[in-house]
Fold this sequence. Notes:
The chain is α/β, with parallel strands linked by helices. It folds into two domains: 1-101, Spore Coat Polysaccharide Biosynthesis Protein SpsA, Chain A, CATH 3.90.550.10; 107-224, Spore Coat Polysaccharide Biosynthesis Protein SpsA, Chain A (Alpha-Beta Complex), CATH 3.90.550.10. 31% of the residues lie in helices and 26% in strands. The protein has nine helices and eleven strands. A five-stranded mixed β-barrel has the order 7-10-8-9-11. Strands 2-3 form a two-stranded antiparallel ribbon. It starts with a strand and ends with a helix.
Amino acid sequence: MSDPLILIPARLAATRLPNKPLADINGQPMIVHVWRRAMEAGIGPVAVATDSAEIARAVEAAGGVAVMTRADHQSGSDRIKEAADALDPEGRHDVIVNLQGDFPTIDPAAIAISIEPLADPAVAIATLAAEIIDEDEKTAPSVVKLIGTMLSPGRMRALYFTRATAPTGEGPLYHHVGVYAYRRRALERFVSLPPSPLELREKLEQLRALEDGMRIDVRLIGHVPRGVDTPADLERARAVL
């Protein structure tokens, strides 16, 4: 885990917020803010993987690196695999971090600690989660819940991810945060697999890895970075930044 590469997949396909990556937030496109947060994490080089020349120009105008990828990818994981191969055909970067392009307010420290579980050679993929505080989020299908076993303070092993309210009984619930740190070979295996039955049922891509037997460990963080999906989310991000 010596040389991570952060890749940010971005495209102009959002329906609730058209042209989302280019939405203005205090004078800069949203994708540029996400790129800056990734750079501030300080764990390795950063590039935006996109099929849009407009997004690429915006990133490059800010001093960033953009990689043009195919337009027919079904997921961000497929897109970052193509970008990783283009940027690093020799495979020097042994960890690939997939950072969503709609997290302009994410704490750079959260990105940095996302790779920590990969210090354990048994872990294939690392990700983030935070305890759910808002009661409404506990029952919201839009909030993906992590079910896992605690390994140490701040560290869990993922057993399942679901949109349902789970697990039942007394105790905390955890909100999964969609930042993934893949071992290079785990990413290659993941994108080679067909969508799995539980992935299709829950509409959660990470279940493909669990169904294949890949181990996913989770670093807990103190807050949930809010993605931007709607005009209201965009206004909130503008206020925060």
